[in-house]
Design goal:
The structure is a single chain. The protein has 109 residues and is of the alpha+beta class. The protein folds into two domains: 63 residues, no CATH class; 44 residues, no CATH class. Helices cover 19% and strands 18% of the residues. It has two helices and six strands, in the order αββββββα. Strands 1-2 form a two-stranded antiparallel sheet. A two-stranded antiparallel sheet has the order 3-4. A two-stranded antiparallel sheet has the order 5-6. β1 and β2 form a beta hairpin. The chain is globular, with a radius of gyration of 17 Å.
């Protein structure tokens, strides 16, 4: 069963990079994370998941390692590293260390 999950990861990775020149591989958003539930490197991007990632072995969708883009600059960071800012319209923004202003607050000038 684990072998099937690993094969699915390999197939999805090949599909994600199919037709892309090697010099453009960095532009493809493809990360494989270790699943916290089963401890296998089988957590891959999935459109069906609410978090955007799903384990091909145990179907877990949650992990603290999943990186999300900053709503201001687009830098990838985990939600733990992001600051949450409530907006006037009731929505929230996730901001990175620099965009939240924490960098300037920590800087000792």
């Amino acid at each position: 069963m684990l072998k099937e999950a690993e094969n699915e990861v390999a197939e999805k990775e090949a599909e994600a990079f199919r037709g892309v020149r090697p010099k453009h591989y960095a532009l493809i958003e493809w990360n494989i994370y270790q699943c916290p539930e089963c401890s296998n490197n089988t957590m891959i991007p999935s459109d069906d998941s609410s978090t955007g990632y799903k384990c091909t072995f145990c179907s877990n969708e949650e992990s603290d390692e999943i990186e999300f883009p900053c709503d201001c600059c687009g830098t990838l960071a985990t939600l733990e590293e992001m600051e949450t800012w409530p907006m006037d319209d009731g929505s929230i923004e996730h901001r990175c260390y620099f965009c939240s202003g924490q960098y300037y607050a920590d800087k000792d000038d």
